[in-house]
Design brief:
- This protein has 355 residues and is of the alpha+beta class.
- The chain is 49% helix and 21% strand.
- It folds into three domains: 31-128, PAS domain (Beta-Lactamase, 2-Layer Sandwich); 130-217; 221-355, Histidine kinase-like ATPase, C-terminal domain (Heat Shock Protein 90, 2-Layer Sandwich).
- A hairpin with a 3-residue loop joins strand 9 (331-337) and strand 10.
- Bound molecules: adenosine-5'-triphosphate and magnesium ion.
- Adenosine-5'-triphosphate (ATP) binds next to helix 10 and helix 11.
- Adenosine-5'-triphosphate binds next to helix 10 and helix 11.
- It catalyses: ATP + protein L-histidine = ADP + protein N-phospho-L-histidine.
- Residues 158-352 form the Histidine kinase domain.
Length: 355
């Protein structure tokens, strides 16, 4: 770090004209710099201040919303910052000539005493908070979406366990009981075939419960990881689309952060559902590659493709894919061409960003 005294040394060493140097700082700094009289008449302002406020030399700096709305006695000075030298800065809103008020962080300090008039001159620094607030708002939104997705996933996990361990197991017990009853009914053919029917129905319900439970939260994902869960997903999808050939290839894929695994799983699930529902494809390939820094996943089909412009507002699946990737600070490309198939490609950092 350069101290004040050796800054002068650096200037002389490099033969820098420090007046010109500070002039450049004054012109290029992003904070608005205004010099005003005690009367608040502007005597100087830098380009950033002009850009932010539209003020010019000779204008009077208005009082900010903090001073115009606070309760003050008549003898209290109108400008809080000019009256309180020990207050470094405040956040407030300032009227401008740009037809809008500006959210600003402001500081005021005495910069000079005019020898002729004996009047103080003040340096007012304005920092635009709007951009900063927008960035904070976007970060907060991202955190909230992340929290919602996490909450949804953990609720899914709980429901999946309830369905599997609770409802599924109870139904299984009923089925075993029916089997026993059936054994006692050998001599009553009508009743026996009725019980058989009920048992068959029950078997289908049990299968459905396990499928719902699996779809809510694939247990293999938590236990065995993404590859096993995708293999299971593909096995289930083959039942829905027996003519479609699925291929899954992975490279370097060991276990990842659970949030990354579930998000990649959901992305693949959505993309594959779309292939089955719309693509009329004969072949779909899922390839996943993990290297030292990133995980790439690509799902490509040889189907009829689509035009992104003409599917606006059609569904949420592709939008959710993009949102999930964004939350993981990754990038996503969805390319499709009529009759040339569709490719969904995502790349995400191996480590989940701190949210
Ligand atoms: N692989 C694909 N092949 C052909 N068309 C596709 C493919 N994937 C998506 N589409 C088209 O893009 C549209 C939007 O897909 P998206 O997944 O966003 O919504 P959706 O599947 O219609 O509804 P949702 O996913 O919300 O249930 C689909 O309706 C379909 O027309
Ligand atoms: Mg969809």
């Amino acid at each position: 770090m350069i101290s004040e005294s050796n800054l002068i040394e650096v200037f002389s060493l490099h033969k820098i004209n420090h007046t010109e140097y500070f002039q450049k700082v004054y012109e290029h700094i992003q904070d608005g710099i205004v010099v005003m009289r005690e009367s608040r008449e502007i005597i100087m302002l830098n380009p950033a201040a002009k850009r932010l406020t539209g003020w010019k030399v000779g204008d009077y700096v208005p009082y900010c919303s903090f001073c115009t709305t606070r309760n003050r006695r008549v003898e209290t000075p109108s400008c809080y910052l000019m009256a309180n030298e020990d207050v470094p800065s405040i956040l407030s809103q300032m009227s401008t000539n740009r037809k809008k008020t500006l959210d600003v962080e402001m500081s005021v300090s005495v910069i000079n005493r005019n020898v002729e008039t004996g009047e103080n001159e003040y340096l007012l620094v304005l920092r635009d908070c709007e951009t900063m607030l927008k960035a904070q708002e976007a970060a907060l939104n991202k955190k909230m979406i992340q929290a919602l997705i996490d909450a949804k996933e953990s609720e899914h996990k709980r429901l999946a366990q309830e369905l599997h361990d609770g409802v599924g197991q109870s139904l299984y017990s009923v089925s075993v009981a029916l089997e026993a009853i059936e054994a006692y009914m050998q001599d009553n053919e009508k009743l026996s075939s009725y019980v058989k029917e009920v048992r068959n129905e029950l078997r289908k319900v049990i299968e459905d419960v396990y499928t719902y439970s699996y779809n809510l939260r694939p247990q293999s994902l938590d236990q065995l990881g993404l590859k096993a869960a995708l293999e299971n997903l593909i096995d289930n999808m083959k039942k829905m689309a027996p003519h479609l050939i699925f291929e899954l290839t992975t490279q370097g894929l060991d276990r990842c952060d659970p949030a990354i695994e579930i998000n990649l799983y959901r992305i693949a699930q959505e993309a594959l559902h779309n292939v089955v529902k719309y693509a009329q494809a004969s072949y779909v390939k899922i390839s996943i590659r993990k290297n030292n820094t990133h995980i790439h996943m690509k799902i490509e089909d040889d189907g009829i493709g689509f035009d992104r412009k003409s599917i606006q507002n059609k569904g949420l699946g592709l939008k959710h894919i993009e949102e999930r990737v964004d939350l993981l600070s990754g990038t996503c490309a969805i390319r499709s061409e009529m009759n040339k198939g569709t490719v969904v490609e995502v790349t995400i950092p191996r480590w989940r960003p701190n949210t």
